[in-house]
Structures are given as C-alpha cells and as structure tokens.
C-alpha cells in the first residue's frame, strides 16, 4: 500500500484549523463549495466537484474520528474506484505561531497515475486551506487551480 502525504504550516490556531476540517462551512471554504452533510462521527459528508458547470464526480466520506484541535479521520465510502476504502486524516499541532497540518491519504493499493494527480490536487487544496485561514478566502472547487482540461 502507498500513501499521499502533505505538510503545511498555517498561521492559525489548531482550533480554527479543526473547524475548517470538521464543519460543512469550513470544508466548503477550501475544498469544494458543493459540500453536504454534518461533521459528526458516524455521519457521511458528500463532496461534489464541477468544472465549467460540468459534473466531475462526487466523493462520500464517513467521519471515523474527531479530536478537537488535534485530528480528523475519514474513510472513503463512495467515489473514484481507487479511493474507495482509503482513509484521509489530518493531524494538527501548534508550533510557535503556526498550526502544522499533516495530511495523510492512506491505503492506496498501488501508485497508479491517478494517484500522481491526486497528490498534486491535495497540495492545491492544502494551500487553499492555508489561504482560507490566513486571508479569509480559500480556492475551493470550482475556483481551484486546474491541472488539466478534465480537472
């Protein structure tokens, strides 16, 4: 199994970063504006992605763990075939004026080309999260950086 790993320092508190990772409003501010569901353990959050009005797909995440200001853990229950069964976690810690965020998308069966794409997109969205918390404005889908014409 292989994993996607990202690290970013955000000039914010772990409490504020946690809110952006665990509430519908927070998630819609940095990942996709089309976010539905509640961030409670056992619930499923639905994320829909579009480009120029066209549907790109959807991902459904089951919330497995929430530790305020410390950790968020999801499991992919529906979405791209390579994602189903994988987990996505964020671990948070304070380091000076920054909250260090460690993203891990783990459980990929093999490093297929789609994983390369997702690695870059997770980095794009981590920068969006940083921007949301430091400036008040993220770049969620459909306003995110495009990597190619089908993105």
As a whole number of angstroms, the C-alpha radius of gyration is 14 Å
Strand arrangement, largest sheet?
Answer: 1-7-6-5-4-3-2
Our measurement of the CA-to-CA distance between the termini, rounded to an integer number of angstroms, reads 25 Å
The unreliable regions are none
Q: State the total count of DSSP E strands.
A: 7
Count of helical regions: 3
Beta percentage is: 35-45%
> Shape, please?
globular
- What is the chain-wise order of helices and strands? EHHEEEEEEH
Average pLDDT confidence is: 96
Summarize the amount of helix as a percent range.
25-40%
Described by strand count, sense and barrel closure, the largest sheet is: 7 strands, antiparallel
Indicate the structural class: alpha+beta
Please describe what this structure looks like.
The protein is of the alpha+beta class. 26% of the residues lie in helices and 41% in strands. A hairpin with an 8-residue loop joins strand 5 (71-78) and strand 6 (87-95). It is globular. 28% of the residues are buried. The mean pLDDT is 96.
What would a concise description of this structure say?
By secondary structure, this protein is of the alpha+beta class. It is built from 3 helices and 7 strands. Strands 1-7-6-5-4-3-2 form a 7-stranded antiparallel β-sheet.
